[in-house]
Design a protein that fits this description.
By secondary structure, the protein is mainly alpha-helical. Helices cover 71% and strands 3% of the residues. The protein contains six helices and two strands, in the order αααααββα.
Length: 126
């Protein structure tokens, strides 16, 4: 394997690693309020185009990287656009331990008895 290929695979590793914390944070917190849906939509289109380019050029470093990044960025975009109940259902399926950490009934948060505000009872809205 030559150095150019090694650099391509290292770039792929960095790119995939960069999106993973955001996707995991969404699963854990269910909070997408600060994420720009238009930016992620543009990213998804761009990664799909890069994937197509990699396939046409038969460049495996581009193909592997963009398959993974496309999946992660599409997941982030979908979670940003989904209504809360569906977002919670997906996050619960991916990380059941996170759902049991928060007292709730179905997909509704329980309110703090003192304030009657579900957002103040258990920290930031998830």
């Amino acid at each position: 394997m030559n150095w150019v290929t090694v650099i391509g695979y290292l770039a792929a590793l960095c790119s995939v690693t960069a999106f993973t914390p955001q996707a995991w944070k969404i699963i854990k917190t269910r909070d997408t309020s600060s994420i720009s849906a238009p930016m992620y939509a543009i990213n998804v289109v761009g990664f799909a185009l890069w994937l197509t380019f990699g396939i046409l050029k038969d460049e495996w470093s581009l193909i592997i990287t963009n398959v993974l990044i496309l999946a992660l960025s599409a997941f982030i975009l979908v979670m940003t656009l989904l209504p809360r109940a569906k977002k919670n259902a997906i996050a619960d399926a991916l990380d059941p331990a996170a759902s049991s950490a928060e007292p709730s009934v179905g997909s509704v948060r329980l309110a703090d008895p003192k304030t009657k505000d579900p957002n103040e009872a258990h920290g930031p809205c998830m």
